[in-house]
């Protein structure tokens, strides 16, 4: 008997593993995604994001474990179930648009419906519907070579959603677009996600994209799930130093500290009471950039470092300072000016935003 929760999950992945020869690209991944969620997969290059998406799409078969879409097992390493990509009700949008150059925009969108043997009238009305949903009705009779990159991406999305898949899979769909168009397309994609009611899985390198679009985020590291949470939860409660130093703009500072006497000390400066280490000799302390002030603040732990660079972000500056051999990032109001090599004083918040073991697991 399936539980109600299992029935409500659009995607359920159990103990999934995928090896290429003796290389394990995906290791023991367990995920459940509720219907209608917008799940974003993030992680450094080579961590297995595209492989996981391809496993969902049915373009790869798992070595171990199981994938169920809408309550139906579509892949199983053990029992050899492998439902064809076309029979999964999952539509994949690639980074490259892969439109058929000899077909018009309408022809491109209509083609998968024709292959699925939709009657002509139903097909034509669905093509009109998605053309208007994507705001590209005026391009229906043009060929791919006669439209811009951004318009081609819209056509690729229209083609994917035309057969009404219940799961939309996106593999870095915006990475070929310029920055302004990316921002526009982000909101467009969210609108389409809501309008279709589909569950979306979206792979990106761009963590701003991840944090603005996702209802759920999975951070992958070396083929494993490092943390699965809402964007807010990832920022507030990163489970590991890996997540803390990957998520956030800028990512949080992680300072290694040794227990000396009754303090935790970094760069000869006591930062926090030794009790925070729960008996450990070495820990790592998290300070968000906004918890690091430039200049001396009385009563706060102070560090001396050398100025490296400053980057403007909106009306603030993101300032990087080298303390020992650790790069510490601070946020400063306005446009911060200094010469590389200048010695700066940094004042830290009176308590760290998190305490992690020397291996990077959160302990407080
Ligand atoms: N067909 C394959 N044969 C052998 N190794 C593969 C194959 N496909 C992927 N890999 C390896 O599996 C690992 C994960 O690859 P994947 O493309 O999933 O990473 P990714 O997180 O999507 O990376 P990127 O962000 O750079 O696109 C990489 O080390 C890659 O070299």
TrEMBL record:
One of its GO terms (cellular component) is ATP-binding cassette (ABC) transporter complex, substrate-binding subunit-containing. Residues 11-247 form the ABC transporter domain. SUPFAM superfamilies: P-loop containing nucleoside triphosphate hydrolases (SSF52540). Keywords: ATP-binding, Cell membrane, Membrane, Nucleotide-binding, Transport. GO terms for molecular function: ABC-type transporter activity; ATP binding; ATP hydrolysis activity. The keyword Acetylation does not apply. InterPro entries: AAA+_ATPase, ABC_transporter-like_ATP-bd, ABC_transporter-like_CS, ABC_transpr_MalK/UgpC-like, P-loop_NTPase. PROSITE patterns: ABC_TRANSPORTER_1, ABC_TRANSPORTER_2. This is Sugar ABC transporter. It comes from Candidimonas nitroreducens. The lineage of its organism: Bacteria, Pseudomonadati, Pseudomonadota, Betaproteobacteria, Burkholderiales.
């Amino acid at each position: 008997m399936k539980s109600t929760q299992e029935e409500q999950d659009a995607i359920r992945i159990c103990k999934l593993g995928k090896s290429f020869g003796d290389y394990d690209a995906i290791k023991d991944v367990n995920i459940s995604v509720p219907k209608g969620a917008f799940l974003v997969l993030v992680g450094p290059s080579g961590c297995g994001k595209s492989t996981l998406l391809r496993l969902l799409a049915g373009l790869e078969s798992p070595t171990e474990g199981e994938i169920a879409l809408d309550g139906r097992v579509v892949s199983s390493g053990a029992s050899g179930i492998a439902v064809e990509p076309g029979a999964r009700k999952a539509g994949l949008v690639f980074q490259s648009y892969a439109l058929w150059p000899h077909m018009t925009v309408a022809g491109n969108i209509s083609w998968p419906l024709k292959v699925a043997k939709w009657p002509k009238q139903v097909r034509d009305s669905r093509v009109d519907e998605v053309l208007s949903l994507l705001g590209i009705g005026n391009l229906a009779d043009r060929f791919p070579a006669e439209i811009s990159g951004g318009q081609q991406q819209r056509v690729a999305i229209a083609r994917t959603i035309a057969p009404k898949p219940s799961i939309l899979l996106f593999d870095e769909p915006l990475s070929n677009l310029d920055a302004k168009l990316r921002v526009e397309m982000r909101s467009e994609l969210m609108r389409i996600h809501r309008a279709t009611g589909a569950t979306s899985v979206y792979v990106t390198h761009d963590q701003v994209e991840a944090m603005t679009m996702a209802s759920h985020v999975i951070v992958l590291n070396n083929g494993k799930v490092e943390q699965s949470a809402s964007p807010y939860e990832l920022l507030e409660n990163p489970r590991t130093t890996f997540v803390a130093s990957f998520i956030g703009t800028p990512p949080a500072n992680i300072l290694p500290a040794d227990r000396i006497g009754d303090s935790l000390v970094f760069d000869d400066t006591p930062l926090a009471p030794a009790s925070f280490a729960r008996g450990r000799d070495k820990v790592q302390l998290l300070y968000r950039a906004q918890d690091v002030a430039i200049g001396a603040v009385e009563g706060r732990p102070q560090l001396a470092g050398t100025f490296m660079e400053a980057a403007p972000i909106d009306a603030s500056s993101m300032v990087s300072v080298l303390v020992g051999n650790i790069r510490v990032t601070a946020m400063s109001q306005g446009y911060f000016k200094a010469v590389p090599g200048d010695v700066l004083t940094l004042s830290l918040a009176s308590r760290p935003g998190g305490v992690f073991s020397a291996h990077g697991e959160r302990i407080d």
